[in-house]
Inverse folding.
């Protein structure tokens, strides 16, 4: 095939983030030299490329330098004031002249450059209205030439922007800021006159004590309200000394007990959804103090957090460039910790999906992360052409814990299922004596075992199959939860019965008590392998280590996946005794990444965590509680609440409320989950969820379902969307 059509124009072109970087190489306002080197150092550290990797189209517009000979830090104040004012005027003029669609990112320099930045930005928006400003700083920067103790001009810019102080500074062209539309965040060191001055003017100050009490995100949200009320636009000025000096010491005046950089970065995400965000300034970086380069990393991180593409643009890109095999809910996640997820605009959600049960220990579990990073630095991949020093330990642990002779590691769940099917067929021919090419596999209606061609050949879901045939022969199905049907379907050629202990994608269907035990007995009697797919149900999810344990069943083949990789990597395995596994000879089966030391190290840590924390006990207790709460609410739109442990389905009456709509409503209320089969809402939070958090989730779910608007399309055919997109 040839590609004669031109490439599509990238949706990058449509972002608001045509960021124009203006460096200001100055330390004129500071009592020490160093910040004048910041723009060049940030450029050399690859800031533009780092922003590009986040989807931000930035270009380094210019770097301005002081004119002529730079006055010494101890030169007479007036000489320095003149030099600062001259540079500030050029900054202001440069910004005022920028094309309207350009978004200015000003990189100091010391904080005196702010006089130019915000006069210039205020001029840009003046025709539309006033400019608000968030000033993030350890200091108040509100001295004047007559009140200053140090004589340093970088202690004066906020006063100057508010129209106070020396005429050289206040005279920089551009509108004066309205104090009622200015906020300071993170201040923790000031002189009384400065505080009195700002208080008199009416500037809102969120000092560091307030930030500690209320949290950076809440304070930033309040500050946004102040600077966006009655203004045409607003800007954010970050003096890096607002950050805690231990985390970010490479600044002119480090001050301890400041804002944690990660908290600032997370708060800045809120800017992505602000169409009236007009400019960003980051100042006071001193490269010579930044020995490890962390300071430059944080500058890139802050700029990226504030200027990165938001939900709409990212979804547009995904839709434009991605195959359409998913139809995700309207949210774009950026960060996860424990049971919480945050979207690219900084909104928090409770994860009630756990990536289809893969994130059982929560996001970013510190021990799992440590296992991952330690191993990644040591050895990640060798292929199985060689042995590595992690896999043998994992194999031994898996066999010991689950009681099998051997384990075969692969990556994704479907690979483990394929492995089981191959093992079963070869066992049928070489051990059971089934005639060549005749072996049969029986699975259940409503199953979900993955989406390879062989596996969808076993599916009863039309959408998974349609258009993908022909499928391999020898694949049959019986109704789920019907042991008699299984027995009736078995023939002398039957190799294996493949079954989920609880059907997950099929709608969280729990079979009647005794079903699995009965299947095990039937399979034993007919010399058929019982292979249980515990990819979703295993490792504590249903309130026991394995869902099979509820019935004391030890299958001939066990398939594990999802949570085995700790929510970090795909790690899956097929386990069986010698009688089955010994059918494999070198070359029969394998994959490049299967059994890699990185995945093995994480899985080993997962097994340690399982043994130490016994999460199935919590899953059993909390699952009962959550299901009880939902059932007790007796909501008219709910037909049934069912599940085991923390694998729970709420079956909705499609005539009243579609589960697709319900998932969208829950998302708007901060609960991330997904329907299965258009009618069932799935609730499968990380097993580490706190009782109080789950109780609150139950309240929100009940309130949301109780107040959901009735279906407008009631009586028309169900949603056209597939079950798992
Ligand atoms: C029971 C079961 N088996 C197999 C799979 C396939 O696993 P994977 O998506 O890792 O290939 C899934 C995935 O949802 C599953 O729930």
């Amino acid at each position: 095939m040839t590609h004669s059509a031109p490439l599509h124009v990238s949706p990058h072109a449509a972002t608001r983030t045509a960021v124009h970087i203006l460096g200001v190489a100055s330390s004129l306002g500071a009592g020490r030299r160093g910040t004048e080197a910041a723009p060049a150092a940030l450029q050399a550290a690859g800031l533009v490329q780092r922003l590009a990797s986040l989807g931000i189209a930035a270009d380094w517009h210019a770097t301005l330098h002081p004119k002529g000979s730079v006055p010494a830090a101890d030169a007479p104040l007036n000489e320095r004031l003149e030099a600062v004012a001259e540079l500030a005027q050029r900054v202001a003029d440069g910004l005022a002249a920028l094309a309207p669609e350009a978004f200015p990112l000003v990189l100091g320099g010391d904080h005196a450059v702010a006089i130019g930045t915000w006069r210039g930005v205020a001029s840009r928006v003046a025709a539309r209205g006033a400019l608000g400003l968030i000033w993030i700083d350890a200091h108040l920067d509100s001295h004047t030439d007559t009140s200053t103790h140090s004589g340093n001009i970088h202690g004066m810019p906020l006063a100057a922007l508010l129209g106070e102080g020396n005429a050289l500074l206040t005279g920089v062209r551009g509108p004066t800021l309205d104090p009622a539309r200015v906020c300071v965040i993170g201040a923790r060191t000031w002189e009384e006159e400065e505080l009195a001055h700002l208080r008199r003017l009416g500037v809102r100050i969120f000092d560091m004590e307030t930030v500690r009490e209320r949290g950076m995100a809440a304070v930033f949200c309040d500050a946004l309200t102040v600077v966006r009320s009655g203004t045409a636009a607003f800007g954010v000025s970050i003096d890096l000394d607002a950050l805690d000096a231990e985390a970010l010491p490479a600044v002119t005046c480090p001050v301890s007990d400041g804002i944690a950089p990660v908290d600032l970065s997370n708060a800045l995400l809120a800017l992505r959804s602000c169409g009236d965000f007009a400019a960003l300034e980051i100042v006071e970086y001193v490269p010579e103090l930044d020995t490890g380069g962390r300071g430059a990393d944080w500058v890139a991180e802050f700029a990226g957090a504030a200027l990165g593409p938001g939900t709409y643009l990212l979804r547009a890109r995904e839709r434009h460039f991605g195959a359409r095999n998913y139809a995700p809910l309207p949210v774009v996640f950026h960060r996860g910790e424990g049971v919480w997820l945050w979207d690219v605009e900084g909104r928090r959600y409770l994860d009630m999906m756990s990536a289809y049960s893969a994130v059982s220990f929560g996001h970013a579990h510190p021990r799992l992360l440590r296992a991952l990073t330690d191993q990644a630095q040591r050895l990640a991949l060798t292929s199985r052409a060689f042995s590595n020093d992690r896999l043998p330990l994992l194999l031994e642990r898996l066999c010991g814990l689950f009681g099998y002779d051997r384990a075969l590691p692969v990556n994704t769940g479907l690979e483990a299922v394929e492995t089981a099917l191959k093992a079963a067929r070869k066992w049928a021919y070489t051990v059971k004596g089934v005639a060549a090419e005749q072996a049969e596999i029986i699975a259940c209606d409503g199953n979900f075992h993955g989406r390879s061609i062989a596996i969808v050949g076993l599916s009863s879901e039309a959408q998974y199959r349609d258009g993908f045939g022909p499928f391999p022969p020898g694949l049959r199905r019986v109704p789920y939860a019907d042991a008699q049907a299984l027995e009736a379907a078995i023939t002398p050629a039957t190799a294996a019965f493949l079954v989920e202990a609880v059907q997950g994608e099929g709608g969280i269907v729990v079979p009647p008590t005794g079903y699995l035990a009965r299947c095990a007995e039937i399979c034993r009697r007919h010399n058929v392998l019982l292979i249980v797919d515990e990819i979703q149900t295993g490792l504590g999810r249903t309130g026991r280590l394995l869902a099979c344990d509820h019935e004391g069943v030890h299958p001939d083949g066990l398939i594990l996946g999802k949570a085995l990789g700790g929510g970090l990597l795909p790690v899956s395995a097929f386990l069986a005794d010698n009688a089955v596994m010994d059918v494999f000879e070198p070359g029969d089966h394998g994959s490049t990444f299967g059994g890699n030391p990185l995945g093995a190290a994480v899985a080993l840590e997962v097994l340690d965590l399982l043994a130490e924390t016994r999460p199935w006990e919590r899953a059993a207790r909390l699952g009962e509680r959550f299901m009880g709460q939902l059932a007790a609410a007796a909501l008219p739109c709910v037909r049934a609440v069912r599940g085991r442990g923390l694998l729970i389905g709420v079956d909705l009456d499609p005539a009243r409320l579609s589960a697709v709509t319900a998932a969208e409503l829950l998302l708007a209320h901060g609960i991330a989950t997904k329907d299965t089969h258009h009618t069932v809402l799935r609730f499968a939070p990380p097993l580490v969820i706190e009782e109080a958090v789950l109780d609150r989730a139950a309240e929100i779910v009940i309130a949301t379902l109780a107040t959901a608007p009735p279906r407008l399309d009631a009586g028309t055919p169900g949603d056209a969307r597939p079950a798992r997109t």
In short: Residues 356, 412-414, 417, 448-450, 500, 504-505, 533, 535-536, 561 surround pyridoxal-5'-phosphate (CB under 6 Å). The two ends are 29 Å apart (CA to CA). The chain has 25 helices and 23 strands. The CA atoms of residues 163 and 651 lie 63 Å apart.
